[in-house]
Amino acid sequence: MENKKTSQLTLLNRFQSFTKHPFFGIFLAAFVMILIQVLGNSGILKPSAVDILANIWIYMIVGLGFTLLLGYAGLASLGTAGFIGVGSYVIGFVFNQMGMNFFVAFILGVVLAIILGTIVGFISLRIEGMYLAIITLGLSEILVEVFKFWTPVTGGVNGVQIARPEFFGKVLEREEVYFILVFFMVVVMISVVNIIASPTGRAMLSIKNSTSAAQAMGISVLKYRLMTFVISTVIAVIGGMLYMTYNRATTPNMWSIALSLNILAAVVIGGSKSIWGVGLGSLLIFGLDQLVLKRIEFFQVYGNASFILNGALIILVVMFYPGGIIRMFKDLSNFTKKQINGIIRSYKEYRYGKQ
Fold first, then answer.
1. Residues 6+ away with beta carbon under 8 Å from 348
2. Among positive and negative, which fits the CA dihedral 68, 70, 73, 77?
3. Mind listing the pLDDT tens digit for each residue in 135-188?
């Protein structure tokens, strides 16, 4: 009997240690994403709702790269939308004009992203803060104008559409692209968690807190700023490629400053130092608008009112909870546990007396 009880306790301890592993939540989130597609295929969820959620996952992937840039390296960028657009047009060019598959497009997109990230990374060595944000905004607007006028490659203002994408000769249906999207989500989340927990993440934080102090400790500002911009840009371009592969259409106006600001809002509101904060912020900024607000008559008439709501949320979070909503949830959880423990302690004292 005692051996049985001991084995049960051992299994319980193993399960608890397993659930506390940082990857447990990631795979649980992936399971929920796959379940959403299964529910959509079975007719329980509307296809439009599944499509909206799929696009939220894409923006969450981009936000995970942006959280390294803003939350850990302390670098402000408003060029994210332009980089996503680069990824979408790479897919269109490779599929329509080169006649090649997703793998070739992926390699080409990563190479372009490394080049763009390196350029912006070198710029960040001379310019910081608001001025860096303005520079990256200008770069994004230049990319949008290139999308509009480089008609042979980008299709001009009408954009580009692709047929069903191919992967090594296999035509991919939208449901199959969804699973590819989930795979990339898991890979990016695991990569970001590992970077955050590594000496690289600590070096990024030290540079954010004090560039002079980081240099005094022998940390190379050049190395880590370049690395951060390259990683962030690569993830943004991958997000654009996934968007184009899933939605099969892109136009220049989609990649305006409004999208960059929404991604910034998602990271700031959710919590710029937490992958779960980024997910929560993405659901609030993109999901609340698409799944809830656009079903309300007021927001149907005044489409830009959602931007006012996003701006108000940013102001409230920055003023009263700089750690983001995820930090508020953690504080509420700790407060609730403290209160419950206090009630239990009071009951024990009442029932058995003070020990």
1. none
2. positive
3. 888 888 888 888 888 888 888 888 888 887 776 667 778 888 899 999 999 999
Question: What is the distance between the terminal CA atoms of the chain, rounded to a whole angstrom?
Answer: 31
Q: How far apart are CA 23 and CA 141, in angstroms?
A: 37
Two structure tokens written together for 271: 């919590």
**C-alpha–C-alpha distance, residues 262 and 260, integer Å:** 5
Domain ranges, ordered by start, for the chain: 33-255, 256-355
Contact call for residues 54 and 179 (beta carbons, < 8 A)? no
pLDDT tens-place string over residues 237-252: 999 999 998 998 899 8
- Secondary structure (H, E, C), the chain: CHHHHHHHHHHHHHHHHHHHCHHHHHHHHHHHHHHHHHHHHCCCCCHHHHHHHHHHHHHHHHHHHHHHHHHHCCCCCCCHHHHHHHHHHHHHHHHHHHCCCHHHHHHHHHHHHHHHHHHHHHHHCCCCHHHHHHHHHHHHHHHHHHHHHCHHHHCHHHCEECCCCEECCEECCHHHHHHHHHHHHHHHHHHHHHHHHCHHHHHHHHHHHCHHHHHHCCCCHHHHHHHHHHHHHHHHHHHHHHHHHHHCEECHHHHCHHHHHHHHHHHHHHCCCCHHHHHHHHHHHHHHHHHHHHHCHHHHHCCCHHHHHHHHHHHHHHHHCCCCHHHHHHHHHHHHHHHHHHHHHHHHHHHHCCC
Query: Which has more confidence, 129 or 59?
Result: 59
Please state whether beta strands 160-161 and 166-167 pair in parallel, antiparallel, or not at all (unpaired): unpaired
Whether the per-residue pLDDT at 4 is higher than 60: the answer is no
Report percent pLDDT > 70 for the chain.
Answer: 91
Q: Fill in the amino acid letter for 81.
A: A
Q: Residue 165: what are its φ and ψ, rounded to 5°? A: -70, 160
Residues 99-111 have pLDDT tens digits of: 777 788 888 889 9
